[in-house]
Amino acid sequence: QVHLVESGGRLVHAADSLRLSCTASGRTIANYGLGWFRQAPGKERSFVAALSWDNRRALYGDSVKGRFTISRDNANNTVYLQMNNLKPEDTAIYYCAVQKYPYGVAVFRAEVYGDWGQGTQVTVAS
Fold first, then answer.
1. Cα 120 from Cα 21, distance rounded (Å)
2. What is the DSSP string of 58-117?
3. What confidence score (pLDDT) does residue 1 get?
4. What is the tally of helices (H) and strands (E) in the chain?
């Protein structure tokens, strides 16, 4: 099992940029597909971005395409979410996740992920 800790969430204004980090401990995440999800107040958790184990494929939710970028640093066992041109509707708790099995492709389905962080709050003021 891997322990995930997100950081970087804070209050920003519309059009600002923000980078979230998620650092893993317990085992390497280098060979695993990774994902970011979010949950806005009163809404269900939704898919944001995913990255295949080999970094060759990334997937994004429709509402963040062209604005968010997922990446990883295997040397530091960390996954990032670069968020540009933030909008008030991006306000949510953001969660990182690691797939249950290694060598996975980029996947948007939450059930594929076995380890989750505790979340970091991002608030975008208009």
1. 9
2. EEE-TTTTTTEEEEEEGGGTEEEEEE-S--GGG-EEEEEEEEEEES------GGGEEEE-
3. 85
4. 0, 11
Question: Which pair of tokens denotes residue 113?
Answer: 């992920």
List the one residue out of 110, 91, 92, 85 whose CA is nearest residue 100: 110
Confidence of residue 54 (pLDDT cuts 50, 70, 90): very high
What is the DSSP-derived secondary structure letter of residue 118? -
The token pair at 85 is 């041109």
Other CB atoms within a 10 A radius of the CB of residue 74 amount to 12
- The answer for 30, left when phi > 0, alpha when psi is -120 to 50, beta otherwise, is alpha
**pLDDT for res 26:** 95
Q: Which residue, among 40, 48, 43, has the nearest Cα to 88 in the 3D structure?
A: 40
Using alpha carbons, select from 96, 92, 100, 101 the residue that is nearest to residue 117: 96
